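Dear support,

Our group has been running a series of protein-ligand predictions, and this particular one with L-homoserine is the one our PI (initials K.S.) wants archived with full inputs and outputs. We had some confusion internally about which version of the output was final, so please treat the block below as the authoritative record. The input we submitted was:
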Amino acid sequence: MSQGVKVGLLGWGTVGTGVTRIFQNSQDLLAKRSGTTITLGKIADLDITRDRGVKVDRSLLTTNAEAVIQDPEIQIVVELIGGIEPAKGFILKALKAGKHVVTANKALLAEHWDEIMSTARDSSADIYFEAAVGGGIPVVQALNDGLAPNHIQGIFGIINGTANYILSQMKKGQSFDEALAEAQAKGFAEADPALDVKGGDTMHKLVILAAMAFGRRVAPSDVHVEGIDQLTAQDILYAREELDKEIKLLGIAKQTKDKQVQVRVHPALIPGDHLMSAVHGVYNSLYVIGDAVGPTMFYGKGAGEMPTASAVVSDVIFIARNIHMGVAGNVPSVYYLPQAAADSLPVEPIAELVSQYYLRFTVKEEIGVIAKIAGILSEKGISIEAVIQKDAHKENVVPIMIVIHQAKEKDVTAALETIDKMPFTVQPTLKIRIEDID
Ligand code: HSE
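Confirmed final output from the archive:
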């Protein structure tokens, strides 16, 4: 056996603590799986005094990240600080020093994909990021290896545990705020919960998945993003009871017929009997369709200390094995086409999307309102599939749900702009896309 591989940790928060816990509990397993001994060489965090309930040799602790990056014995640097700076500077420095890097930092990868990938390539260093998408679910490795011979046709992901937790709790009758507070208390949420509920975190993960699936970067600004903060418990209930559908926050990356890709994040109505509808709470799921394999599905905990630590340490084991075999840095860790680095993927504008929609109007209870709405929709060539009217929940104000047949997004938007200006409209109309997931 070689002298073993030393790992340096940057950031000792929730996930970092989980990583040290795995090192404490599963040292033998790590050695058996990698063929070499893997040990923690240094741990850097601004706070090294807080008790994390895990045993580590205190001489490993430092408040100086540079001491980790510059340590000649450390071959793998694990970045778990999160955010753009200083994480980005540390990662680039570590790669340039020839160290392999493991990171869970989805925001950084999404925003600076090319710079990080090309620095890794130029330095013959590996970068692995299983924990950046889907918490403990090994979907990054699946895209890299298990699905390697496939042209990926579509990815549909429930990839934000907090948002999925909130939707699941709202279905059980909890308010949005109560559910968010619980998710935060359980350590699922981002430091800024707006990233979870407004779709930004799902967007970051989707950008990474799309880059891996299609071999070229997707500009974050090209992704259409909507969150779950406009949804009410009533929408979730109507979807279930009237339409046999579930509302999920989806990240979608899909090839179109004319060689563009759709990359969009938004709540979607999906069939109640689809497997993705059974994904509740903090669980994440990815439905990935390849041209050879057909549909595949991945499921597991998408956030939290130990699931995310599991993904981080899986990358560490993988790299340690490669170091042991003398191949680390020689095989690209990600399917990536450097010649296309300058060009983002051509993304279909959301206005061109053709979809079915659920529309929830909030209007005054007056004679002829449905007729007027139907008239405006028909002027745009939009055909109605179903109309549901519920009892007034406030005096003289009623929700009207209309499901429309396939239509172009820009026509739907234009019709809603007109309808929302009508004197009978009490609240802006909510529009949720209906996805078949196939
Ligand atoms: N805030 C994220 C989530 C954590 O809720 O999924 C994992 O990326």
